[in-house]
Design goal:
Layout lengths: L4 H11 L6 H12 L5 H7 L5 H10 L2 H9 L9 H8 L10 H12 L3 H4 L2 E2 L5 E2 L3 E7 L5 E7 L3 H9 L2 H7 L9 H15 L2 H14 L6 E2 L12 E5 L6 H4 L4 H22 L1 E3 L7 E4 L3 E4 L5 E3 L2 H16 L3 H11 L10 H9 L11 E2 L2 H11 L5 H4 L5 H4 L3 H13 L2 E2 L1 H8 L10 H17 L1
Parallel strand pairs: 5-9
Antiparallel strand pairs: 1-3, 2-3, 3-4, 4-6, 7-10, 8-9, 11-12
């Protein structure tokens, strides 16, 4: 008897298997083995041409779990080998939609064919990812734009995967063994479901674009509202170097790029109360002098004032005051560390202190691969008595991406800075003076914005 629907998808997901993404792998092998003059033809032959093909392919690739794998696709360094292999099975991208299918989505959403909605629309996508693909286009009034088109049926496929959090709660401990699978499942489900609605992503992106308007080195593309819907998101087209190129740049440029990434994350949390929770190499475009364009605002977490106060209390007690007992009380009060676990305060400080190493003391600190690897190992360490006593409240699930994401990026850049002095600019309890050339540019920008609003 053949199983179908959620039951069938759940059974297939539980196997994780060996066949995950096999179709995609076969297509890529065929493309690479084809003679150069036939590669484009082979690629076109494997495009997704119907909504039924999309649904079937996403089902083979395990929908939501593929997306979860992509969230962790760049933290391999430091992972125990079983987890590395498990994540590798979840990191495939879906093949691109054929031009005709993408045009059908645009017409259904905007009420017009792409050639009528835009002055120009490139049918060949710039990029294909887990839930959609991006096309270059020009608006009728001459603006160069990027148009993100969602795969038809991807929302139903992922919603089906995520509708039963009990299944995810059983699967996630295989990847995050020391953490509460139920909390992880619920928070990731909520965030991933939000990501399916491009209207919410557009609202997130508008918020960041407005917050950083006129910034000297942080750029967020504007949303083109009249050409954006739940499944089509049109934004200003941005240019710049990709991360893989930046890691080959001179050290000074890599340091500036790393500083901008650091400032964007911690200014967002401390000053705006929001965190773009997908610090992935593909979500940035770089130019010299630390100038970075930030892309993809589907996975955003907003924090209530009482939540940001907890973050500040953790910094105050451990980093600024050096009071391990007070720090431990904050962890236990917020539910991050279980009380009565028989741990000494020294053990707690030694374990968690690693994650603050960048900012515990002033002076240059190079974020290298050893630091990033140790960060990942601590999170995945089944043997650590402290890790075993850790529970992640919902507010910390996405923020953990700083440890898994931002630090991994800084390590690939081998970025060096006085992170403590930079952080003191951004922490509201210190509100320190500019510590770097970028800090002085940012302070002047903030001063002008305040004066304009005055």
């Amino acid at each position: 008897m053949r199983r179908s629907g959620r039951l069938g998808r759940t059974a297939a997901t539980a196997r994780l298997g060996t066949t995950l993404g096999a179709g995609t792998l076969r297509r890529e092998v065929a493309r690479r083995l084809a003679p150069a003059e036939r590669r484009a033809e082979v690629a076109r032959a494997h495009e997704l041409r119907t909504a039924e093909q999309v649904a079937r392919t996403l089902g083979e690739m395990k929908g939501a779990l593929m997306k979860l794998g992509q969230l962790a696709s760049f933290i391999d360094e430091g992972l125990p080998e079983p987890y590395r292999q498990a994540l590798a099975t979840l990191q495939a991208d879906a093949p691109p939609m054929a031009a005709e299918l993408a045009a059908q989505v645009v017409e259904a959403e905007l009420g017009r064919q792409p050639e009528d909605a835009f002055a120009e629309f490139d049918p060949v996508p710039l990029a294909a990812a887990s839930i959609g693909q991006v096309h270059r286009a020009t608006t009728v009034d001459g603006r160069a734009v990027a148009v993100k088109v969602q795969y038809p049926g991807v929302d139903e496929a992922i919603r089906a995967d995520l509708s039963n959090t009990a299944v995810l709660a059983r699967l996630l401990p295989a990847l995050f063994p020391s953490l509460d699978g139920r909390v992880l499942a619920t928070e990731l489900r909520d965030r991933l479901l939000e990501e399916l609605d491009y209207r919410r992503e557009a609202a997130n992106q508008r918020r960041f674009a407005d917050a950083y308007r006129g910034h000297p080195f942080i750029h967020v593309p504007d949303v083109v509202d009249e050409l954006s819907t739940a499944r089509v998101l049109t934004t200003e087209l941005a240019e710049g170097a990709r991360f893989d190129e930046v890691v080959t740049w001179p050290r000074e440029e890599r340091d500036l790029a790393g500083e901008t990434l650091f400032r964007f994350v911690f200014r967002g949390i401390n000053r705006l109360g929001i965190f773009n929770g997908d610090p992935h190499p593909g979500n940035y475009l770089f130019r010299s002098g630390g100038r970075v364009t930030f892309l993809d605002f589907g996975l955003v977490r907003a924090f209530a004032p009482e939540e940001t106060r907890v973050f500040n209390q953790m910094i105050q007690t451990l980093v600024l005051d050096g009071d391990g007992d007070a720090y431990r009380r904050v962890l236990e009060d917020v539910g991050l560390l279980r009380g009565g676990a028989g741990l000494s305060t020294d053990q707690v400080v030694e374990y968690f202190g690693h994650f603050y190493a960048l900012v515990r003391e002033p002076g240059p600190f190079t974020v290298g691969s050893d630091y990033a690897s140790e960060t990942v190992r601590r999170i995945f360490d089944r043997a650590s008595p402290v890790a075993a006593a850790v529970d992640l409240p919902p507010m910390f699930v996405i923020v953990q991406r700083i440890n898994l994401g931002l630090y991994a990026l800084l390590a690939r850049l081998e970025a060096t800075a006085d992170w403590r002095r930079i952080a003191e600019e951004l922490w509201p309890m210190t509100d320190g003076p500019p510590a770097t050339a970028l800090g002085r540019l940012e302070a002047e920008w903030a001063r002008r914005r305040l004066a304009d609003r005055g």
